[in-house]
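Fold these two proteins, one after the other.
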Amino acid sequence: MKIGGLAKRSGLSTHTIRYYERIGLLPHAERDQSGQREYDASILTWIEFLGRLKTTGMPIRDMLHYAALRERGVGTEAERCALLEQHREKVRAQVVDLQACLFVLDTKIAGYTGEDKRMREYEASIPERRRKPAGTRQAGAR
């Protein structure tokens, strides 16, 4: 597939695909007779994996290291595994931090929801004749 098709299917821009290829995250594409890049559909799996690494905060230098190991092939599995295990620990720590943040947000939202409910209950407890509609004034109070 051409670079435009890869961009559509992967969600990356053509600029990003060229950049990833230039720095070594993507293997250099074959070229057709007119010099245009021609990609195999199997590259989509690799791009998706890179996207996951990026989403989880892996630095590009570590992604490049992993890509270089992958390119070398057999015999690098243990090192690739170790790299991913180290990253997994960082992701787990991030998840714990995010869960703590989520708890704070949930607590804060519950507080607002509870206060709103308390205000409605308070307003409902005021006898109707004592309540004044919003925006009204007493007559003769000039």
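Now the second one:
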Amino acid sequence: MNLEYNPFQAEVMGVPEDTDVFLGGGRGGGKSYALALLALRHVVKYGARARILYIRRSYKGIADFELITRELFGGIYGAQARYNGGEHVWRFPSGGYMELGQLETHADYAKYQGRTFTLLMVDEAGQYPDSALLDILRSNLRGPQDVPIRVVMAANPGGVGHYWLAKRYVFKSAPWKPFDEEKSGREWVYAPSTFAGNKFIDRAQYGDQLRSSCPDDQELLKAWIDGDWAIVRGAYFASVLDESRNAVDPWAEIPKGWRTYLTHDFGSSAPSATYIVAKSPGAEGPDGKFYPRDSLVLVDELATCKRDRPTEGLGWTVPILAEEIVAMCKRWGVRAQGVADDAIFAAHGHSNGSIANEFSRYGVLFSPAKKADRLTGWNIMRRMLADAGKPDLPGLYVSRVCEYFWSTVPYLARDQKRVEDVDSSGPDHAADAVRYGCLRQDRTIQRVRIGGYDGKAERPRAVVAGAPLVRCAFKSRTTARETRQA
């Protein structure tokens, strides 16, 4: 069998074997076939010492790569290379071994713990919302002194993992130029590709298919066609969120006449996110900027996430979280009350009745956000983000001290099966908290307009016993989070 490469694959094969590689181009560039070629070369060169692990997030995702390996390995070895479909394992006549595996959760890692591999391949790495699982898997790389160990990742821009992949591998150096990657302590090369350079596919037909798959999302189309990681990756809020419009400089105080409330998304193993929301009466803020009536400003946040791991919480209990929320509210001189995720009002069988009840014991009062359906909340939030900066419409503004918001919300991907929704496998905790706050705002406006209430009707209502109001604030300062972790 004569092997033929496209130019991208040929250049990938030329990268030294002791250098890790990020195949980070657009769709259709030949990344998966490049992975199969690298695996084949590894087996040929190192024989029985070759131990390869190919990873996808689900077994269903393995099917396409399985077909590629059947064609490639079958063409080279014929019946001498055996594939066990039940175990998803290739065994080669030289004694080499390649496993097509699945890794979605930390529980899945148990089947790899203690095992040794010389080559680790991760396909569609953008499906992982953060790097935690893949970093752990790297500990399985071990081999004889004369067998280079290596990691090769492949991903398209625009997935839930876009942010961490771009930060670690794309914007560190020019394409094809080696750089030292801090977390792994290894030398990497960023290897981009596009379908335009793949002569083995019908490029005109493939381009038409990509364009027809996202007619209303030009950012995502650009990411898929050009492999562009610099854009806001076809993100859910790409068309409505603009730093120049929505970001405001930190406030020193909340002016008199502005109503305030908290909006909160609860988490323990996952992050919680809490925001102090200031609602404009139609006046200037401390920054001298005019905010139309009913505009919302997120003036501070409390986010309980691990450093550089936006989907992992700090494991704080309600008493600790409530203590931090109350402290944040005291700094701003506001009451610790607002709206929160409806789920915290469900009874869990313990003496406190619900998470919301436990919050109330420690001075934080929440009322249900009444989420309705997700799309309603997202539409309200998108509308307010888009209206920011308009002189006669209420907009949504976010202080630059809200680090968790700015490091996650602009990069949230669309749900590929329901493009009107956010992909909930990403770090959407800040976005959810803000969505609840926007839903409260929308209901308040409707009550005022329809019922003819006066301003007092906009105050947070007291909650009946068993459903207290909880309020939470986020400290964006890293030192505060690190102190708690210590």
